[in-house]
Amino acid sequence: MGEELHAKVQVVRQGMTPATTLSWANSASPIITSAITPLPQGRTLGLEERIEMKLKEGDKSYAIQGYIDRLTWDPVTETYEIHDYKTGSAVPTQQEADEDRQLALYQMGIKQRWPDAKRVKLIWHYLATDKEIVSSRTEANLATLEREVIDVIHQIEEEAKLGRWDVRVSRLCDWCEYKSICPAWKPRRPWKPSLRMNTSRIPVCSSSPNTAELEARKADHQADIKNITQEQAKIEEAALAYAKKEDLLSIDGPEHRLVIKNEDEFRAPPNRKTLLPGNSCARHSRMPGNWKMSQRSTVPC
């Protein structure tokens, strides 16, 4: 391939450097060339071929689209072949390939595009290990898959209605086509709390303090902890109010991002004796990590 990567190429995978990436690419070149060489008995119908499939539920339908790395047609066996190329080193088992949804949905799209399609073969090429896995789906398999995906769509719709849609922020977000409308990446103004927490250092104990001195220091520290906890609670309350006002699921600070997560948590009393009139269950708004949101509203059990 070459002796160095282009200056605009960025290596995003952890543990990989430009040098190791180039070395891998050079070693994988023969495998890639072999994998993409046209088959003697077939022909390539498309590369990065856009495919659309419609999932039907009564009078309603859901449209899904994807892109097939390489679509080929073998006239001898009258078989469409869906090829998917993987650069990762992890190779799934045959069972995992047989349960894969992505290429099975592509097969559904092929059969919808060409209803007379008799056979469709699903092929994964793992370039780093020079492995190939082949699978196929029956009509019954596709019908089951259609129901499963529609169930997932219903779950997403229900979670969205309840406002409990959990977002996962990862390096894959850079490739996501829905990043512009994702709540985790919604444009927002920088937010800084108006309150400042006491971050003074705890004094270092002397080499041989007496008990009275330690007790005095402990009392001072407990008072500081109480004050800091109160200030932190006010900041958390302000963060929740700001996030609710701006309709945010995360808030950017100078160096860190706060991720807001709403959960319903129901607590039962430890025993019957502690039951109080009008007992209620607390609904919490929480932030993971060191942030524990204190705002809560009650709903009747």
Oligomer: single chain
Helix content: 25-40%
What count of structural domains?
2
CATH architecture call of the largest domain: Alpha-Beta Complex
Radius of gyration, CA atoms, in whole angstroms? 29 Å
What is the strand arrangement across the widest sheet?
1-2-3-4-5
The average pLDDT score comes to 75
Number of beta strands: 10
Number of helices: 5
Question: Major sheet, described briefly?
Answer: 5 strands, mixed
CATH topology of the largest domain: Lambda Exonuclease, Chain A
What share of residues are in beta strands? Answer: 15-25%
Q: How would you sum up the global shape?
A: elongated
What structural class is derived from the secondary structure elements?
A: alpha+beta
Straight-line distance between termini: 66 Å
Instruction: Give the SSE string.
Output: HEEEHHEEHHEEEEE
CATH class of the largest domain: Alpha Beta
Uncertain stretches:
273-301
How would you describe what is shown here?
This protein has five helices and ten strands; from the N terminus they run αβββααββααβββββ. The protein is an alpha+beta fold. The chain has two domains: 38-162, Lambda Exonuclease, Chain A (Alpha-Beta Complex), CATH 3.90.320.10; 187-300, no CATH class. The strands form three sheets. It has a five-stranded mixed beta sheet. The longest helix is centred in the last third of the chain and has 36 residues, at 211-246.
Short description:
This protein is an alpha+beta fold and 301 residues long. It has helices spanning 18-36, 94-98, 102-113, 139-162, 211-246; strands at 43-57, 60-74, 79-86, 119-126, 131-135, 250-252, 257-259, 261-264, 280-286, 296-300. Mean pLDDT is 75; it is low at 273-301.
